[in-house]
Automatic annotation (TrEMBL):
InterPro entries: Ald_DH/histidinol_DH (IPR016161), Ald_DH_C (IPR016163), Ald_DH_CS_CYS (IPR016160), Ald_DH_CS_GLU (IPR029510), Ald_DH_N (IPR016162), Aldehyde_DH_dom (IPR015590), Aldehyde_DH_Superfamily (IPR050740). This is NAD-dependent succinate-semialdehyde dehydrogenase. The active site is at E260. Pfam families: Aldedh (PF00171). GO terms for molecular function: succinate-semialdehyde dehydrogenase (NAD+) activity. It comes from the Bacteria. Gene3D superfamilies: Aldehyde Dehydrogenase, Chain A, domain 1, Aldehyde Dehydrogenase, Chain A, domain 2. Belongs to the aldehyde dehydrogenase family. It comes from Paraburkholderia monticola. Keywords: Oxidoreductase.
Amino acid sequence: MSLALTRGDLIRRHNFIDGLWAGAFDGACFAVSNPATSETIAEVADSGTVDARAATDAAARAFPGWRDMLARERAEILRRWHALIVANTEDLARLMSMEQGKPLTESRGEVAYGASYVAWFADEAIRIYGDLIPQQQRGKRMSAVKEPVGVVAAITPWNFPLAMIVRKIAPALAAGCTVVAKPAEDTPLTALALAALAQEAGLPDGVLNMVSASRAQGVIAVADWLADPRVRKITFTGSTPVGKHLAREAAGTLKRLSLELGGNAPFIVFDDADLDAAVTGLMAAKFRNGGQTCVCPNRIYVQGSVYTDFANRLAKRVAALTVGPATDPGAQIGPMINARAVDKIARHVDEAVQRGATVLVGGRRLTELGANFYAPTVLTDANDDMLFCSEETFGPIAPLFRFDDEAQALRLANATPYGLAAYFYTQDVRRINRVAGQLEAGVVGINEGAVSSEAAPFGGVKESGYGREGSKYGLDDYLAVKYMCQGGLN
């Protein structure tokens, strides 16, 4: 199977600024490679301060016109963008599989999922309501209206190259904001293709600007956005340490922040759970994108009386997974994003074994497939001293912890500074209410492993960040409330 594109023009190597495609100011480039083969796919612009500032200049110039457009006019452009994303599903999926590595089936699913956010916020654009405040004094009328915050900087990770960036750009555009964006250095090509389709949909020049950059240069570009008072909001998905850095640096200009940061999700299986359903839910939650998602269960707690039975059922399902590059039509798990990721996974597994864990399935690098492949793994006898409890593994590793009762499960589940997602399986209705209410997470899956939806608010608590993406709440962080008091009406 070939991953060649029907529309070769969707592979863009340049920055998109003010409606024009151009290389970095100093001509620098960096390579984007296929993690399955380590082969270079394309050389793209390696942007710095000058490029970031040019993007901000364009966004600031375009903001008044975009803000003053009728909401239905903005919505119509978003609908055209959505239609073009859907129409080019296969090319976008192939491009994503090439630069990120996920199986083609998953990439197609991500295109549909990401496109759903564009459609959702196209509809939400015409539903941004204000309030007429009940009269408090004679002769005065008080009202509250919602207005776009201004220029938004969107910074996204590599694990979902399409979905992560559109679910930031779409609400920003719907609210009337203009955008400067920097996709992850590992996966800029999908994002640049989206910008090309947005231009094709008729988005006015300067409303969306996108720059690509290597890791070092990206830090420089983002630093300029952090310092620039014209950028009024930063929306970021990535690690907690980087999120904290952005929060500190953005304080100088009091920018609004949306931070979707690291996770350490617990997955709890109570002894009254439907074990087959729990295994199916865990497979969906844990092994999607090869375990490289922020909502993947990192700690799997199973009640003692069903521990062995659950472990055996899970091991059987995991052993049947097919690992391979996206060119393999049967692949269910692709390569990890790079060598650093594989090294971290191997370190976590090796450390767990040294501390007493048992490997039921996997537990090794798949060097016969390539440098970045690791076998889907199930470990039993995990304990609180292992790295799984303090670090996000970000790989296809399922460590099973044993617990005795509900109180212990909740204590263990919440014993982390993170609070993005949590999952549990039980058939006890009273327990559902108790546990869901006490889990410290922004997203809770109850007898369900696939929880994401464009109609639902997504985001974390504690050190997993703040702000929400998706749903009607997803517009709030892109809007400012203005209070108006009109007097002299007697």
